[in-house]
Myo-inositol-1-phosphate synthase (Prevotella lacticifex), 435 residues
Amino acid sequence: MKQTNVKPADGKLGIMVVGCGAVATTFMTGVLMARKGLAKPIGSMTQYDKIRVGRGSEKKYLHYKDIVPLADLNDIVFGTWDVYPQNAYQAAVYAEVLKAKDIEPVRDELEAIKPLKAAFDRNYAKRLDGDNVKNCKTRWEMVEALREDIRNFKKENGCARVVVIWAASTEIYVPYNEQYHGTLAALEKAMKDDDREHVAPSMCYAYAALTEGAPFIMGAPNTTVDIPAMWELAEKTKMPIAGKDFKTGQTLVKSGFAPILKVRNLGLAGWFSTNILGNRDGLVLDEPANFHTKEVSKLSTLETILRKEDQPDLYGNIYHKVRINYYPPRNDNKEGWDNLDIFGWMGYPMQIKINFLCRDSILAAPLLLDLTLLMDLAARAGRYGIQRFLSFFLKSPMHDYTKGEEAVNNLFDQYVMLKNAIREMGGYEADEEID
Protein backbone atom coordinates (compact mmCIF):
# COMPACT_ATOMS: atom_id res chain seq x y z
CA MET A 1 0.00 0.00 0.00
CA LYS A 2 1.35 3.44 -0.89
CA GLN A 3 1.85 6.11 1.75
CA THR A 4 -1.32 8.22 1.99
CA ASN A 5 -2.85 10.76 4.35
CA VAL A 6 -5.77 8.45 5.12
CA LYS A 7 -5.96 7.61 8.81
CA PRO A 8 -5.78 3.87 9.57
CA ALA A 9 -8.97 1.91 10.34
CA ASP A 10 -7.98 1.26 13.95
CA GLY A 11 -10.54 0.18 16.55
CA LYS A 12 -14.16 -0.80 16.24
CA LEU A 13 -16.53 0.67 13.65
CA GLY A 14 -20.11 1.11 14.83
CA ILE A 15 -22.70 0.84 12.06
CA MET A 16 -26.00 2.25 13.27
CA VAL A 17 -28.85 1.36 10.92
CA VAL A 18 -32.09 3.32 10.92
CA GLY A 19 -34.71 0.59 10.46
CA CYS A 20 -34.40 -3.04 11.53
CA GLY A 21 -36.46 -4.59 8.74
CA ALA A 22 -35.69 -6.94 5.86
CA VAL A 23 -32.79 -4.96 4.36
CA ALA A 24 -31.06 -4.20 7.67
CA THR A 25 -31.34 -7.73 9.07
CA THR A 26 -30.21 -9.34 5.80
CA PHE A 27 -27.18 -7.03 5.84
CA MET A 28 -26.33 -7.68 9.49
CA THR A 29 -26.86 -11.45 9.27
CA GLY A 30 -24.72 -11.69 6.14
CA VAL A 31 -21.82 -9.80 7.73
CA LEU A 32 -22.00 -11.91 10.92
CA MET A 33 -22.12 -15.13 8.85
CA ALA A 34 -19.24 -14.00 6.61
CA ARG A 35 -17.15 -13.29 9.70
CA LYS A 36 -17.60 -16.90 10.76
CA GLY A 37 -16.73 -18.14 7.26
CA LEU A 38 -20.26 -19.53 6.85
CA ALA A 39 -21.38 -17.27 3.97
CA LYS A 40 -19.80 -15.21 1.22
CA PRO A 41 -20.48 -11.44 0.86
CA ILE A 42 -21.29 -11.77 -2.85
CA GLY A 43 -22.26 -8.53 -4.57
CA SER A 44 -19.99 -6.42 -2.37
CA MET A 45 -17.51 -4.28 -4.29
CA THR A 46 -15.33 -3.71 -1.22
CA GLN A 47 -14.98 -7.46 -0.68
CA TYR A 48 -14.66 -8.68 -4.29
CA ASP A 49 -13.90 -5.94 -6.82
CA LYS A 50 -10.38 -5.28 -8.06
CA ILE A 51 -9.10 -1.99 -9.44
CA ARG A 52 -6.16 -1.49 -11.77
CA VAL A 53 -3.52 0.83 -10.35
CA GLY A 54 -0.45 1.97 -12.26
CA ARG A 55 0.24 1.59 -15.98
CA GLY A 56 2.51 -0.46 -18.22
CA SER A 57 4.95 -2.61 -16.28
CA GLU A 58 3.69 -1.00 -13.03
CA LYS A 59 0.14 -2.21 -13.65
CA LYS A 60 -1.54 -4.30 -10.91
CA TYR A 61 -5.10 -5.30 -10.08
CA LEU A 62 -5.78 -4.96 -6.36
CA HIS A 63 -8.68 -5.43 -3.98
CA TYR A 64 -9.88 -2.18 -2.37
CA LYS A 65 -8.38 -3.15 1.01
CA ASP A 66 -4.95 -3.45 -0.63
CA ILE A 67 -5.21 0.10 -2.00
CA VAL A 68 -6.84 1.90 0.95
CA PRO A 69 -7.21 1.07 4.68
CA LEU A 70 -10.75 -0.33 4.96
CA ALA A 71 -12.37 -1.40 8.22
CA ASP A 72 -12.29 -5.16 8.70
CA LEU A 73 -15.58 -7.08 8.99
CA ASN A 74 -14.41 -8.38 12.38
CA ASP A 75 -14.27 -4.81 13.73
CA ILE A 76 -17.94 -3.99 12.95
CA VAL A 77 -20.48 -3.53 15.75
CA PHE A 78 -24.16 -3.13 14.82
CA GLY A 79 -26.80 -0.90 16.33
CA THR A 80 -30.26 0.02 15.08
CA TRP A 81 -33.40 2.07 15.62
CA ASP A 82 -36.88 0.80 14.74
CA VAL A 83 -40.54 1.53 15.47
CA TYR A 84 -41.01 -2.18 16.24
CA PRO A 85 -39.24 -3.54 19.35
CA GLN A 86 -38.27 -6.98 17.95
CA ASN A 87 -34.55 -7.75 18.11
CA ALA A 88 -32.60 -8.36 14.91
CA TYR A 89 -33.06 -12.15 15.12
CA GLN A 90 -36.86 -11.86 15.45
CA ALA A 91 -36.95 -9.26 12.68
CA ALA A 92 -34.85 -11.46 10.36
CA VAL A 93 -37.15 -14.44 10.93
CA TYR A 94 -40.23 -12.25 10.40
CA ALA A 95 -38.82 -10.80 7.15
CA GLU A 96 -38.63 -14.30 5.60
CA VAL A 97 -35.75 -13.32 3.34
CA LEU A 98 -33.17 -15.76 4.69
CA LYS A 99 -33.57 -19.44 5.53
CA ALA A 100 -33.19 -20.68 9.10
CA LYS A 101 -29.85 -22.34 8.24
CA ASP A 102 -28.46 -18.90 7.35
CA ILE A 103 -29.74 -17.19 10.51
CA GLU A 104 -29.44 -19.74 13.33
CA PRO A 105 -25.60 -19.89 13.46
CA VAL A 106 -25.54 -16.18 14.45
CA ARG A 107 -28.77 -16.18 16.48
CA ASP A 108 -27.09 -15.07 19.73
CA GLU A 109 -25.38 -12.12 18.07
CA LEU A 110 -28.60 -11.05 16.31
CA GLU A 111 -30.65 -11.35 19.51
CA ALA A 112 -28.22 -8.96 21.19
CA ILE A 113 -29.03 -6.27 18.58
CA LYS A 114 -32.11 -4.63 20.10
CA PRO A 115 -33.56 -1.60 18.37
CA LEU A 116 -33.42 1.73 20.13
CA LYS A 117 -36.67 3.70 20.13
CA ALA A 118 -37.18 5.38 16.79
CA ALA A 119 -37.64 9.10 16.20
CA PHE A 120 -40.89 8.68 14.32
CA ASP A 121 -43.80 10.70 13.01
CA ARG A 122 -46.68 8.58 11.77
CA ASN A 123 -47.72 11.28 9.29
CA TYR A 124 -44.55 10.45 7.34
CA ALA A 125 -45.30 6.71 7.08
CA LYS A 126 -49.00 6.17 7.76
CA ARG A 127 -48.87 2.41 7.14
CA LEU A 128 -46.49 1.79 10.05
CA ASP A 129 -47.96 1.47 13.54
CA GLY A 130 -45.08 0.38 15.79
CA ASP A 131 -44.92 1.70 19.34
CA ASN A 132 -41.15 1.55 19.96
CA VAL A 133 -40.94 5.31 19.48
CA LYS A 134 -39.42 8.24 21.31
CA ASN A 135 -41.72 10.55 23.22
CA CYS A 136 -40.34 13.80 21.81
CA LYS A 137 -42.37 16.99 21.93
CA THR A 138 -40.44 18.75 19.16
CA ARG A 139 -38.16 17.98 16.24
CA TRP A 140 -35.27 19.52 18.20
CA GLU A 141 -35.93 17.09 21.06
CA MET A 142 -35.72 14.28 18.46
CA VAL A 143 -32.27 15.53 17.44
CA GLU A 144 -31.07 15.71 21.05
CA ALA A 145 -32.39 12.21 21.85
CA LEU A 146 -30.73 10.73 18.75
CA ARG A 147 -27.43 12.43 19.54
CA GLU A 148 -27.55 10.85 22.98
CA ASP A 149 -28.24 7.44 21.40
CA ILE A 150 -25.16 7.74 19.19
CA ARG A 151 -22.95 8.86 22.08
CA ASN A 152 -24.19 6.04 24.33
CA PHE A 153 -23.81 3.40 21.60
CA LYS A 154 -20.28 4.51 20.84
CA LYS A 155 -19.30 4.46 24.52
CA GLU A 156 -21.05 1.20 25.47
CA ASN A 157 -19.53 -0.68 22.53
CA GLY A 158 -16.09 0.91 22.66
CA CYS A 159 -16.35 2.16 19.08
CA ALA A 160 -13.62 4.37 17.65
CA ARG A 161 -15.98 5.57 14.89
CA VAL A 162 -19.65 5.39 13.94
CA VAL A 163 -21.44 5.54 10.57
CA VAL A 164 -25.23 6.04 10.39
CA ILE A 165 -27.17 4.60 7.44
CA TRP A 166 -30.88 4.90 6.70
CA ALA A 167 -32.49 1.58 5.71
CA ALA A 168 -35.98 2.46 6.91
CA SER A 169 -39.13 3.20 4.93
CA THR A 170 -39.69 5.91 2.37
CA GLU A 171 -41.17 9.03 3.93
CA ILE A 172 -43.83 11.18 2.29
CA TYR A 173 -42.47 13.68 -0.22
CA VAL A 174 -41.02 16.88 1.23
CA PRO A 175 -40.34 19.37 -1.56
CA TYR A 176 -37.23 21.53 -1.18
CA ASN A 177 -38.22 24.89 0.29
CA GLU A 178 -35.49 27.51 0.43
CA GLN A 179 -37.15 29.29 3.36
CA TYR A 180 -36.70 26.25 5.63
CA HIS A 181 -33.99 24.18 3.91
CA GLY A 182 -31.81 26.88 2.34
CA THR A 183 -29.50 27.52 5.31
CA LEU A 184 -28.46 25.67 8.44
CA ALA A 185 -29.82 28.50 10.62
CA ALA A 186 -33.23 28.21 8.91
CA LEU A 187 -33.35 24.43 9.38
CA GLU A 188 -32.35 24.69 13.04
CA LYS A 189 -35.05 27.30 13.61
CA ALA A 190 -37.64 25.04 11.93
CA MET A 191 -36.55 22.16 14.19
CA LYS A 192 -36.79 24.29 17.32
CA ASP A 193 -40.19 25.65 16.17
CA ASP A 194 -41.32 22.03 15.70
CA ASP A 195 -42.17 22.59 12.05
CA ARG A 196 -43.37 19.08 11.23
CA GLU A 197 -44.29 19.93 7.65
CA HIS A 198 -40.81 20.96 6.52
CA VAL A 199 -38.66 18.86 8.88
CA ALA A 200 -38.89 15.11 8.26
CA PRO A 201 -37.77 12.69 11.00
CA SER A 202 -34.95 11.55 8.69
CA MET A 203 -33.51 15.08 8.82
CA CYS A 204 -33.25 14.70 12.61
CA TYR A 205 -31.24 11.49 12.21
CA ALA A 206 -28.90 13.14 9.69
CA TYR A 207 -28.45 16.24 11.83
CA ALA A 208 -27.74 14.13 14.93
CA ALA A 209 -25.26 11.90 13.10
CA LEU A 210 -23.24 14.73 11.56
CA THR A 211 -23.16 16.69 14.80
CA GLU A 212 -21.84 13.60 16.62
CA GLY A 213 -19.07 13.13 14.04
CA ALA A 214 -20.73 10.24 12.21
CA PRO A 215 -21.01 10.16 8.40
CA PHE A 216 -24.63 9.81 7.22
CA ILE A 217 -25.98 7.82 4.27
CA MET A 218 -29.57 8.17 3.01
CA GLY A 219 -30.72 4.85 1.58
CA ALA A 220 -34.31 5.90 0.76
CA PRO A 221 -35.50 8.60 -1.64
CA ASN A 222 -36.36 10.95 1.25
CA THR A 223 -35.52 14.64 1.18
CA THR A 224 -32.91 14.57 3.95
CA VAL A 225 -29.26 15.41 3.26
CA ASP A 226 -29.91 16.68 -0.27
CA ILE A 227 -30.65 20.24 0.91
CA PRO A 228 -28.25 23.21 1.25
CA ALA A 229 -28.80 23.36 5.02
CA MET A 230 -27.36 19.85 5.40
CA TRP A 231 -24.49 20.62 3.01
CA GLU A 232 -23.66 23.55 5.27
CA LEU A 233 -23.76 21.27 8.33
CA ALA A 234 -21.51 18.71 6.59
CA GLU A 235 -19.00 21.50 5.84
CA LYS A 236 -19.20 22.79 9.42
CA THR A 237 -18.72 19.34 10.99
CA LYS A 238 -16.25 18.19 8.27
CA MET A 239 -18.36 15.06 7.75
CA PRO A 240 -19.14 13.13 4.54
CA ILE A 241 -22.73 12.62 3.41
CA ALA A 242 -24.18 10.40 0.67
CA GLY A 243 -27.59 9.69 -0.83
CA LYS A 244 -30.03 8.93 -1.94
CA ASP A 245 -31.93 5.65 -2.38
CA PHE A 246 -30.12 2.32 -2.77
CA LYS A 247 -29.77 1.36 -6.44
CA THR A 248 -30.70 -2.31 -6.34
CA GLY A 249 -33.02 -3.73 -9.00
CA GLN A 250 -34.85 -1.89 -11.73
CA THR A 251 -32.83 1.33 -11.59
CA LEU A 252 -29.58 -0.65 -11.69
CA VAL A 253 -30.85 -2.22 -14.92
CA LYS A 254 -31.88 1.21 -16.23
CA SER A 255 -28.55 2.90 -15.42
CA GLY A 256 -26.70 0.02 -17.10
CA PHE A 257 -28.98 -0.48 -20.10
CA ALA A 258 -29.72 3.13 -21.11
CA PRO A 259 -26.02 3.67 -21.97
CA ILE A 260 -26.34 0.87 -24.56
CA LEU A 261 -28.91 2.96 -26.43
CA LYS A 262 -26.77 6.06 -26.03
CA VAL A 263 -23.50 4.59 -27.33
CA ARG A 264 -25.28 2.92 -30.28
CA ASN A 265 -27.24 6.11 -31.05
CA LEU A 266 -30.56 4.28 -31.01
CA GLY A 267 -33.72 6.27 -30.33
CA LEU A 268 -36.08 5.83 -27.38
CA ALA A 269 -39.79 6.58 -27.66
CA GLY A 270 -40.89 5.25 -24.28
CA TRP A 271 -39.78 3.32 -21.21
CA PHE A 272 -42.46 1.77 -19.01
CA SER A 273 -41.36 0.32 -15.67
CA THR A 274 -43.58 -1.49 -13.21
CA ASN A 275 -42.82 -3.44 -10.04
CA ILE A 276 -44.63 -5.81 -7.72
CA LEU A 277 -43.35 -5.94 -4.16
CA GLY A 278 -44.81 -7.43 -0.99
CA ASN A 279 -42.56 -6.50 1.93
CA ARG A 280 -42.93 -3.61 4.39
CA ASP A 281 -41.38 -1.30 1.80
CA GLY A 282 -44.16 -2.24 -0.62
CA LEU A 283 -46.78 -1.63 2.05
CA VAL A 284 -45.44 1.87 2.78
CA LEU A 285 -45.12 2.68 -0.94
CA ASP A 286 -48.76 1.70 -1.43
CA GLU A 287 -49.54 5.08 0.16
CA PRO A 288 -49.62 7.63 -2.72
CA ALA A 289 -47.73 10.35 -0.79
CA ASN A 290 -44.87 7.92 -0.07
CA PHE A 291 -44.85 6.53 -3.62
CA HIS A 292 -44.42 10.06 -4.99
CA THR A 293 -41.08 10.34 -3.17
CA LYS A 294 -39.91 7.08 -4.81
CA GLU A 295 -41.31 8.07 -8.21
CA VAL A 296 -39.29 11.31 -8.31
CA SER A 297 -36.15 9.31 -7.49
CA LYS A 298 -36.76 6.57 -10.08
CA LEU A 299 -37.71 8.97 -12.87
CA SER A 300 -34.53 11.06 -12.61
CA THR A 301 -32.19 8.31 -13.84
CA LEU A 302 -33.08 8.18 -17.53
CA GLU A 303 -33.22 11.89 -18.32
CA THR A 304 -29.61 12.51 -17.28
CA ILE A 305 -28.28 9.61 -19.39
CA LEU A 306 -30.38 10.11 -22.54
CA ARG A 307 -30.38 13.89 -22.78
CA LYS A 308 -32.86 15.40 -25.20
CA GLU A 309 -30.83 18.61 -25.57
CA ASP A 310 -27.82 16.58 -26.79
CA GLN A 311 -29.76 14.32 -29.19
CA PRO A 312 -33.25 15.74 -29.92
CA ASP A 313 -33.82 13.28 -32.81
CA LEU A 314 -33.20 10.31 -30.53
CA TYR A 315 -34.41 11.41 -27.10
CA GLY A 316 -36.48 14.52 -27.71
CA ASN A 317 -39.82 12.96 -26.80
CA ILE A 318 -39.39 10.07 -24.34
CA TYR A 319 -42.49 8.88 -22.46
CA HIS A 320 -41.19 7.54 -19.13
CA LYS A 321 -43.55 5.88 -16.65
CA VAL A 322 -42.78 4.16 -13.33
CA ARG A 323 -45.21 2.12 -11.21
CA ILE A 324 -44.92 0.17 -7.95
CA ASN A 325 -47.68 -2.18 -6.88
CA TYR A 326 -48.02 -3.71 -3.43
CA TYR A 327 -48.53 -7.46 -3.83
CA PRO A 328 -48.17 -9.35 -0.50
CA PRO A 329 -47.65 -12.91 -1.89
CA ARG A 330 -44.22 -11.92 -3.25
CA ASN A 331 -42.92 -10.55 0.08
CA ASP A 332 -39.27 -9.53 -0.49
CA ASN A 333 -39.05 -11.12 -3.94
CA LYS A 334 -39.64 -8.11 -6.12
CA GLU A 335 -40.44 -8.42 -9.81
CA GLY A 336 -39.61 -5.58 -12.16
CA TRP A 337 -40.91 -5.41 -15.72
CA ASP A 338 -39.48 -2.97 -18.22
CA ASN A 339 -40.82 -2.31 -21.69
CA LEU A 340 -38.69 -0.17 -23.99
CA ASP A 341 -40.05 1.16 -27.25
CA ILE A 342 -36.96 2.01 -29.27
CA PHE A 343 -36.39 3.00 -32.89
CA GLY A 344 -33.52 2.62 -35.33
CA TRP A 345 -32.50 3.27 -38.91
CA MET A 346 -35.04 5.50 -40.72
CA GLY A 347 -37.18 5.55 -37.57
CA TYR A 348 -38.30 1.89 -37.67
CA PRO A 349 -39.68 0.75 -34.27
CA MET A 350 -38.38 -2.11 -32.12
CA GLN A 351 -39.01 -3.29 -28.57
CA ILE A 352 -36.95 -4.59 -25.65
CA LYS A 353 -38.54 -6.41 -22.67
CA ILE A 354 -36.70 -6.98 -19.40
CA ASN A 355 -38.17 -9.06 -16.56
CA PHE A 356 -36.02 -8.97 -13.43
CA LEU A 357 -37.17 -11.37 -10.70
CA CYS A 358 -34.96 -10.08 -7.95
CA ARG A 359 -34.65 -10.31 -4.18
CA ASP A 360 -34.75 -6.79 -2.86
CA SER A 361 -32.79 -7.29 0.36
CA ILE A 362 -30.25 -9.67 -1.22
CA LEU A 363 -29.35 -6.91 -3.69
CA ALA A 364 -29.43 -4.15 -1.04
CA ALA A 365 -27.34 -5.85 1.68
CA PRO A 366 -23.97 -5.58 -0.12
CA LEU A 367 -24.71 -1.92 -0.88
CA LEU A 368 -25.08 -1.21 2.85
CA LEU A 369 -21.73 -2.87 3.50
CA ASP A 370 -19.97 -0.98 0.71
CA LEU A 371 -21.52 2.38 1.52
CA THR A 372 -20.74 2.18 5.24
CA LEU A 373 -17.15 1.01 4.72
CA LEU A 374 -16.46 3.59 2.01
CA MET A 375 -18.05 6.43 4.00
CA ASP A 376 -15.90 5.50 6.99
CA LEU A 377 -12.91 5.56 4.63
CA ALA A 378 -13.94 8.97 3.25
CA ALA A 379 -14.18 10.40 6.78
CA ARG A 380 -10.70 9.08 7.64
CA ALA A 381 -9.40 10.57 4.37
CA GLY A 382 -10.70 13.98 5.43
CA ARG A 383 -13.34 14.09 2.70
CA TYR A 384 -16.52 15.91 3.64
CA GLY A 385 -19.75 17.10 2.06
CA ILE A 386 -21.40 15.20 -0.82
CA GLN A 387 -19.47 12.04 -1.75
CA ARG A 388 -20.16 11.92 -5.48
CA PHE A 389 -17.91 8.89 -5.94
CA LEU A 390 -20.59 6.79 -4.23
CA SER A 391 -23.15 7.56 -6.97
CA PHE A 392 -22.52 4.04 -8.28
CA PHE A 393 -24.58 2.65 -5.38
CA LEU A 394 -27.39 5.19 -5.44
CA LYS A 395 -30.57 5.61 -7.44
CA SER A 396 -30.76 9.39 -7.24
CA PRO A 397 -27.22 10.63 -6.54
CA MET A 398 -26.83 13.90 -4.68
CA HIS A 399 -25.67 16.95 -6.60
CA ASP A 400 -25.75 20.72 -6.10
CA TYR A 401 -28.91 21.61 -8.00
CA THR A 402 -28.66 25.20 -6.71
CA LYS A 403 -25.70 25.64 -9.09
CA GLY A 404 -27.26 23.80 -12.02
CA GLU A 405 -25.23 20.61 -11.47
CA GLU A 406 -26.77 17.40 -12.79
CA ALA A 407 -26.31 14.00 -11.21
CA VAL A 408 -24.19 11.41 -13.01
CA ASN A 409 -26.48 8.40 -13.55
CA ASN A 410 -24.62 6.43 -16.23
CA LEU A 411 -23.43 3.29 -14.40
CA PHE A 412 -20.15 3.13 -16.29
CA ASP A 413 -19.29 6.79 -15.66
CA GLN A 414 -20.17 6.20 -11.99
CA TYR A 415 -17.80 3.23 -11.89
CA VAL A 416 -14.94 5.40 -13.19
CA MET A 417 -15.70 7.96 -10.44
CA LEU A 418 -15.67 5.21 -7.80
CA LYS A 419 -12.38 3.71 -9.00
CA ASN A 420 -10.68 7.10 -9.25
CA ALA A 421 -11.66 8.08 -5.72
CA ILE A 422 -10.23 4.79 -4.40
CA ARG A 423 -7.05 5.32 -6.45
CA GLU A 424 -6.61 8.88 -5.20
CA MET A 425 -7.17 7.92 -1.55
CA GLY A 426 -4.67 5.11 -2.05
CA GLY A 427 -2.03 7.52 -3.36
CA TYR A 428 -2.35 6.45 -7.01
CA GLU A 429 -3.02 8.53 -10.09
CA ALA A 430 -6.64 9.08 -11.15
CA ASP A 431 -7.27 7.47 -14.47
CA GLU A 432 -10.09 7.92 -16.96
CA GLU A 433 -9.47 4.61 -18.70
CA ILE A 434 -12.30 2.10 -18.25
CA ASP A 435 -11.06 -1.48 -18.37
